[in-house]
Write a structure and sequence with these properties.
Blueprint lengths: L1 H13 L7 E4 L5 H13 L5 E4 L2 H10 L14 E4 L3 E2 L5 E2 L6 H9 L4 E6 L12 E5 L4 H10 L3 E4 L1 E2 L2 E2 L7 E6 L6 H9 L4 E4 L1 E2 L5 E6 L2 E6 L3
Parallel strand pairs: 1-2, 1-3, 3-6, 6-14
Antiparallel strand pairs: 4-5, 5-13, 7-11, 7-12, 8-11, 9-10, 14-15
Helix pairs in contact: 1-2, 2-3
């Protein structure tokens, strides 16, 4: 059932992509279905170019037959489709569960229309149940962790297969437990000011359109015109 909800939301987002657009492709299990649908549309004649936000997304896009471009050729995207780990009532997001938060924020910040696709399980009353990913440089990461603790977080260095997880940018990810996050924009600013912090998984005041896959079908919420 959850996969059906994700599939409905992901495919719905593809309907907003038009001929000639440059499209940002995020990551996650719901965006997977957006990529598959866009691949089908490209095979039927849709003319687009895409910029993926992770090496994994790049592989999926290439396999789907979606032509790719880069920021050496374009400076702005027409539309971006991305998932989220949590969405609050003000449409603030926690992202970065897959470790691509820096590139995702880069892509999603440089788009005219940012579409967020989720299933209904990602909707929360307040952010914070999902640990907040924070990308830090490897050199002196221990200092960054102590600084994050001073802000009230409990940071844990991300591991994968028993090894320290390394992002596509060569950095570490620290998953930070803040319980509930009452002021996401303020917390993002505080974290970004810490030595060694590259980016946070808090995406505030960015969402233009939210597509939710639910038990009763797909719901589309226009956040910004």
């Amino acid at each position: 059932m959850d996969n059906l909800k994700k599939k409905q939301a992901g495919e719905k987002a593809a309907e907003y992509v038009q001929d000639g657009m440059v499209v940002g492709l995020g990551s996650g299990t719901t965006v997977y279905y957006s990529i598959q649908k866009l691949g089908e549309l490209v095979s039927e004649g849709l003319q687009i170019k895409a910029i993926p936000s992770s090496t994994e997304t790049e592989k999926l896009a290439r396999k789907a037959g979606i032509p790719l471009t880069s920021f050496s050729e374009v400076s702005e995207l027409d539309i971006s489709i991305d998932g989220a780990d949590e969405v609050d009532p003000e449409f603030n997001l926690i992202k970065g569960g897959g470790g691509a938060l820096l590139r995702e924020k880069f892509v999603d910040s440089l788009t005219k229309k940012f579409i967020v696709v989720v299933d209904e399980s990602k909707l929360v009353s307040r952010l914070g149940s999902f640990p907040l990913p924070v990308e830090v440089i490897p050199f002196g990461w221990e200092v960054s962790v102590k600084a994050i603790e001073s802000l009230g977080g409990t940071p844990i260095l991300r591991k994968k297969d028993g090894e320290t997880f390394v992002s596509n940018n060569g950095n570490y990810i620290v998953d930070c437990h803040f319980s509930t996050i009452h002021q996401p924009a303020s917390l993002h600013t505080q974290l970004k000011q810490l030595l060694g912090v590259v980016e946070t998984g808090l995406f505030t005041d960015m969402t233009d359109l939210l597509i939710i896959g639910g038990t009763d079908g797909t719901k589309v919420i226009t956040v910004k015109e």
